[in-house]
Amino acid sequence: MNHEIRPLTQKEELAAYARIAFDAYPGFGMEDAAHLEAYLVKIVEKAGSVRPFGAFRNGNLTGGMLVYDYSMNYRGAFLPVGGVGLVAVDLLHKKEHVCKDLITSFILESRDRGQMLTLLYPFRPDFYYKLGYGYGSPIYEYRVRTENFTQGSTKEGLEHAFPEDREAMVRCYNQVAGVTHGMIERSGSDMGRLLAKKGHHAVAVREKGDVTGYVIYKFESAHKNNFVANDLVIIERMETTPQSRERLNTFLGGQRDQCAYVTYRTFDAEEYHLLADPRDPSGDLVPEVYHSSHRGAVGLMYRIGDIEGFFREADFPAPQDWETLALEVTDTLLEKEPLTGCLVQKEGRLHFLPRKDVEGIPMVRTGIQALSSLVMGALSPGKALKDSLASADSKEAENGLLRLCGALEKPRCWTSF
Description:
The protein is of the alpha+beta class. The chain is built from eleven helices and 21 strands.
């Protein structure tokens, strides 16, 4: 690396990072660099799970990033993972590998901290793909008639929620996170910040004193010349019981006199089956007669920083009657040569053992991007093999990859960073 990467702790350094980030993201709507600087100072003072780092060359700060320590549900068990955000480069130092050095340092530091998997939201997916990050699940945004949410349920248990309800609401959120692959645990303060954000409103469902569901939403103008015409935009929605789902649908459907449309996002590719009318308001037809219903987007990306460590920490269960499978993984950022090893079964769990001699063992060859997406469940083995994102040297190797990742649930993550 061409830069020294180290934590930012001094006020002058934090001020410099704030100015760099403010210039790098003018569309973020930050009031000024001073507000961002105050936020960074609070992060350092709290010494919590968010840490600012800077890239230095000849003593000058050329860029920075925020590193997050998270706990993510991986197939039913929580795994320590690293997140990175607000990656910013000084405008005078573009094309000098500042971002590459920051991300390389982040991956290596996360690995040293026992975080074998790292996550990020890319400003440019193609750039981070070159650094070894694989795509996660796409998200689907719907804008549909409010009548889709009418369920005819009672309003029993529905109540307005406020920042002081954050602990009860975060228990509901974490209950969902505990059974959802890919979700990140949240604290009460995290929930409090979401609830306190300007323009955010919330309604919760209480059953026997516990919050079993909630929706956080805001209003957006739907007509430039009609101030009473608004859309209801769902920021986040969680429920843990069928009753809470019905109550929230009743609340949303009840807003149809004020909001003709509801906008919301989901990771469910089959969401349209739940809607009586999934059409969006564009009226567009896709040839021949397919009605425009939603838009899809790619976002969160994942990367394995240490294959051996990942399989150890993930406690990956071995499929029944597992036969040893060899892997050859290309990782041009961290390894000069492809990494070769075997996935072997030990006491019902899969372990990756690096080794050069794999002659006679069925082998799959792939890149770290595809492997990261495969083990997260975001990429199906069939798709990877069909489109040459992975290759198998035999039918046995194909079957091994299918058995390894074929039944994985697609990840869902509602945490922004």
